[in-house]
Design a protein that fits this description.
This protein has 399 residues and is α/β, with parallel strands linked by helices. 31% of the residues lie in helices and 24% in strands. Strands 1, 12, 13, 14, 15, 16, 17, 18 and 19 form a nine-stranded mixed beta sheet that branches. An eight-stranded parallel beta barrel has the order 2-3-4-5-6-9-10-11, surrounded by five helices. The chain has a two-stranded antiparallel ribbon with strand order 7-8. Strand 2, helix 3 and strand 3 form a beta-alpha-beta unit. The longest helix is centred in the middle third of the chain and has 30 residues.
């Protein structure tokens, strides 16, 4: 059993000659998490969500493993960059208004073969056609199903506000429109159940909320499984689907259990950020961390580290802040929290820390951490085995 204190010893030893701030990925934990995702997927391929990784070397690493196939990207510019780097199965999972990108896509056979784009509105078709210029390549299209749970006749909605397409009739009708339009072909369907995949159902210290989440998710899974199957049947009457994508790290088991789904998406489960601590279905190993140096000792039971205020996206709240992880026993000052340029940390263990020592943090979400760092140290055992650039380190900031 790997203990946090043993991990801290390894990380400190591996990075002893490196100044913080710095970021690491523990390859042993990363690979173990990947293997667990494959086990949970029960034979269906996992499409890697690049937004949750944002390190090209680690995308390459996981895609060399059995059980992983293809990338789910987050912008058209990123999709094109990855395709030109050799990735050949990319699903752009969010609509784009990147006219220059669409012109490039429509003009390049290699890109057009490698990239499928997400559409859910006729106006998006018009935008692409207006951007084509002289490009004549066929655009591969993936449709998105709204997965939100509607209760009380739609007066209560639980789930992300994404696609306007919800019913079999709406999806089939839009698929027919795409198929009838020159230069487009429907190849896939995507349905991301974020209220299941991205919401923990076992929240420490909150048993009532945990039970309510479990009840909601049980209801949502049953409703979505039936509706998704009906949508897939309806769309298959109009178009030949190469893939039906669903789920995320927190819903792998329930998503792959549906016959209609051919692949599942996951990415956060490779790093296991703090928002993924609250699940009953799986428990991974934190693999991506960042270290900040102790720069002050203001008093007994207090140290101050440089920076550290790296909030995650989403509704603002304490759960969007990184957490001090190693050494264990540190906490934020409630009056200051995680600061832009300095962060005080409280706890008796602070008295054991010296100026220059590293405090290790876990980010709330996965890939967003690496927008803060140009490079990441890859660690095996107690050694840095490689230093690789993040997207930012390669000069790429897509969002």
């Amino acid at each position: 059993m790997v203990t946090p204190s043993a991990d801290r010893t390894r990380y400190d030893r591996a990075t002893a000659q490196l100044d913080a701030p710095l970021a690491i990925v523990d390859l042993e934990a990363f690979d173990a998490n990947a293997e667990d995702l494959v086990r949970r997927a029960a034979g269906k391929p996992i499409r890697v969500a690049s937004k949750s990784v944002r390190v090209r070397a680690l995308l390459e690493r996981v895609l060399r493993m059995d059980g992983f196939q293809g990338i789910m990207s987050f912008t058209l510019a990123e999709s094109i960059w990855l395709a030109r780097a050799g990735f050949d199965d990319i699903l752009l999972a969010y609509p784009s208004a990147d006219r220059a990108g669409y012109a490039e896509l429509a003009a390049d056979p290699k890109l057009a073969r490698a990239i499928s784009v997400l559409l859910d509105d006729p106006a998006q078709l018009d935008l692409i056609d207006a951007a084509r210029g002289a490009g004549t390549e066929e655009i591969r299209v993936c449709l998105e199903l709204d997965t939100a749970l509607h209760l009380l006749g739609g007066r209560i909605r639980i789930g992300a506000r994404r696609s306007p397409l919800r019913t079999p009739e709406a999806l089939a009708g839009f698929a027919r429109l795409v198929q009838q339009r020159d230069g487009f072909r429907v190849v896939g369907l995507m349905a991301y159940e974020g209220h299941i995949a991205g919401v923990g159902d076992s929240i420490a210290g909150r048993p009532f909320r945990s039970r309510m989440v479990q009840l909601m998710q049980r209801t949502a899974r049953a409703e979505l499984a039936q509706r998704r199957a009906e949508v897939v049947r309806a769309v298959r009457e109009v178009a030949e689907l190469e893939f039906v994508n669903g789920g995320g790290t927190g819903s792998v088991e329930s998503t792959v259990a549906e016959d209609a789904v051919t692949e599942v998406a996951a990415g956060s489960g490779l790093y296991v950020p703090r928002l993924f601590d609250n699940y009953r279905s799986f428990h991974g190993r934190p693999a991506a961390l960042f270290a900040q140096p102790v720069v002050r000792r203001p008093g007994v039971g207090v140290v101050t580290v440089l920076g550290g205020g790296y909030p995650a996206s989403g509704a603002a709240g304490a759960d969007r802040s990184p957490v001090p992880y190693l050494p264990q026993g540190l906490r934020y000052d409630s009056q200051e929290g995680a600061g832009e340029v300095q962060t005080p940390l409280l706890g008796s263990v602070a008295d054991d820390l010296l100026i220059g020592d590293k405090v290790w943090f876990r980010h709330a979400k996965a890939g967003e951490l690496f927008e803060r760092f140009a490079e990441v140290q890859l660690i095996e055992g107690a050694q840095v085995v490689e230093t690789v650039p993040t997207y930012r380190g390669e000069g790429r900031t897509f969002l």
